[in-house]
Amino acid sequence: MDHSTNSAPQESDGGRQLDPVRITISMIAKRNLSLSRSEATEDLVQRLLRLSHIRLDRENIREIDHMEVLGPVTNLYLQQNFISKIENLESLMSLRFLALGGNQIKTVENLLLLDGLQLLDLSENQISDFDLEQFPKSLVILNLADNPCCRLANHRQKLIEALPNLKQLDCRPVTSDERRQAGQEVTSSGSEDDLPDGEEEESYHQSLDELLHLSADLISQSQDRTEQYESMHKDKMAFIGEVRAQSRQASNTPR
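The structure corresponding to this sequence follows.
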């Protein structure tokens, strides 16, 4: 994806330019709850506190804020916004899945208190370098694809060495050979023995499924556009064929 799409205000469905905004409680509620005008404020607050998945992708957000009003959130979707700084997440102690792809982030920071974070998507940002100490050791899946830092020497090896639980990096599985090169112990059956079990395994696979759904969503949008263009092209060619046929018929008709 072209990073230039993140440097200018996005357009609404009506074509009107939208300026970057801050997260508000109203935005969280409207996007993640079915609202009723007759609902009491206390009931709305209680429902907000019970949310485990928060979706705020593609909302033109420029700052992460108001996370402290939420309860035990495990999955937070903030991809495709205008966010330039990772901040104000320390209240989300149950967070396991954080999607920040397609923003304007330059620095990996303020994540260490999220010691249960398993999946972090920072793809398609502006990260040119990073401090290895800023990544939670709990990470199982990390995506930095389409950032300038991916071109750094030993980018992949350094991350595998620093993150012992990593199973997937930049959409590619971490291999047994890479683990050995990183000085990690590898069992005879490879990385499969290192997968979490029980509830942790279920959470791991759920997070992996969420990441795959995100990727599938982007692929699906691209395919839909391609199919639309192909359909338009076929219609256009059919119309041209009809015009040519009518033209030949007219020229062959005796006057």
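The helical segments are 25-32, 41-50, 155-162, 176-181, 198-252.
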